[in-house]
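Data card: per-record layout.
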Amino acid sequence: MASAHQIRDLITQTTSGTVRPRVPREVRDEVCRYAVRRRKAGAAWSLIARETGLDVRKLQRWNTRARRVASVPVLRPVEVLPAPERPDGLALIAPSGVRIEGLAVEQAAQLLRLLA
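The structure for this 116-residue chain is written out next.
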C-alpha cells in the first residue's frame, strides 16, 4: 500500500521532463487504489488530489475509468452436466422446504391427510 508521499514521488519520477506528461497505467492504477482507500476512509476528492499532487478532475476521471475496466464481465468456461434423472412418482414439498419424492398417488394423499 503506497502512501500519498510515495504516490506523489511515483508520479514525479514517471512524468519529469515532459511538457504534457502521460502517466503510465501502472501508476494510474496505484493512484486509483490509493484514492479508493482514502475515499473509504471518508476523505474528499479535493484532499486526495492535494495529497497526490493531481487535479481533482483528472483523479476522478482515472477512478471512473478504472472502475469501468474492473466491471467488464469476464467469461469463464463452464461444464454443462446432464440433468439428474427424476424419480418416478410424485414429489411432496413442505413449506419448510422438506421434499419427499417418489410417492404413489395413494401415498401422497395419505401423507397429506396425516399432515393436515
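Known properties of this structure: The mean pLDDT is 84. Residues 4-70 form one domain.

See the next section for split statistics.
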